[in-house]
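Quarterly update from the structural biology core.
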Amino acid sequence: MVNEYHVINKGIFQLFLIREDQSILGSVYHLSDLTLDLMNHVNVFNCNVSNPKTWNLNNADTELVMDALSQLLKDLEAGVYQNLTVYANNRCRQRQLINKNLLVWDSLQVQSENFEMEIYNNYKIGDKLSDTDENALPISSFIYSTKLELMIEFLLIGIELELYREFEIYSIYWYINYLTKVYINHSTERLLKFNKYKISKIVAKKKKSKNKQELEQKREKLTKINEALQHKIDYWKGFQRLINSVCLLLNYLQNQKMIKFDDLTANFITSFESLFRLRFKPFESIGVPSQLTFAQYSSSFASDVSQDEVINSLNMAKEALVEYNKSVTNDNEKQWISSLVKTCFSYILELKGGKNVFEVSPGYNTYFPKFTAKLPVIE
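Predicted structure, tokenized:
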């Protein structure tokens, strides 16, 4: 929404949102409070690692761990601040800043993992992911989730800004498909699972505790957090279905010799592999998730993708998005999901239409242009 306003208004917005004293909109609510709330509303609420009252340490060790935790949270605040101020810029500048922020959040993840592993090994401070001894690493998991969202957004904005040539577009959706799968798996197997485990521990503790009201309040809050998290995961599942359908669609178009996504024309002085590496160079210095290679890209094409398979996949994506939209109450979000549903419809119609030219033009959603298909070339 900020993009709709004049550059001066956006500058004022940035100054007004977070003041020099780091207060939010001039209130008693500060950036540090916002950072903690963002973490708590994902997976950090009711964690041992973030609650000094649960540590069984002497004063000297408590102070040592607190200093390290305070420094980590301070660095996290800087990362959150940079994320917030990104959106006071135009979309092109936003993408540039997100590119820079990726390195910040990757460094934060390394810093956080080192901190959480150290205090777990040295002081037995930490949280289990389940009844096994696996460390949940709640702060690191939150940071990783944020980093994945930034990586996905970086590529999606590139599509919106039409930065990619027609022969590159498959590689971008293919990479987004990979990242969304990683994000969904992380959200389900680390964030959601960890919160469920904390709820089960509270329920078990409640049976033996006299302070049942406080425990019930924690259980209710964690339940609400997980409901919101599940809602978000459901969105990403529908979105990933659409992304995967687009990959199938583009794969099908290549099989029908409408366009090539694995080779360049003689007009280019570089190879497609070099161009591939250049496009995903911003991810080279990122430790996790593991980066996809050109060899993996080259082997991703299937020669037996049929038109029916693409249409079935698009219909499944459409149904998932329609079902998700039933639970949405926000008007802006409803419109966004509706644009994704229309995108599914438009791709199906284009496939059935059998046009004689291949074109990429604006679609119903900024992240999904219209791909005009054509009939197979008879040689």
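Residues 375-379 have pLDDT under 50 and may be disordered.
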